[in-house]
Amino acid sequence: MKERTLIALGALNMFIAVGCGAFGAHGLKKMISEEMLAIWHTAVTYQVMHALGMIAVALLMPRLGGAALRWAGVLMLAGIVVFSGSLYLLALTGTRMLGAITPFGGVGFLAAWLLVAWAACKQPAK
What we know:
Layout: H1 3-27, H2 34-64, H3 67-93, H4 102-122
Helix pairs in contact: 1-2, 1-3, 2-3, 3-4
């Protein structure tokens, strides 16, 4: 994934996360339980962290280069879709089975951060 694409996707995810955060704080507060609202909040928090992570990875790419950072960006995006997406759906629908796929998104996040560490330690600087 190219740097500009990663920055654009990170910014788009920040836009979505801010909207979801506002919707959770104002629109959902009286519609879903406190437990489901906490799940919604977790989804927003991880989306924000990893959208910013995508932007940081893109900014590191010219300096560190390498496929590791490209894959880190892809895994962060996939993690947002799977982790945060499944939690958003769980909070809205109450379908507990959705929680079974959430950890796969978490594994994507973990792998992405390991790739960032790998790139910082092992990739030759450009």
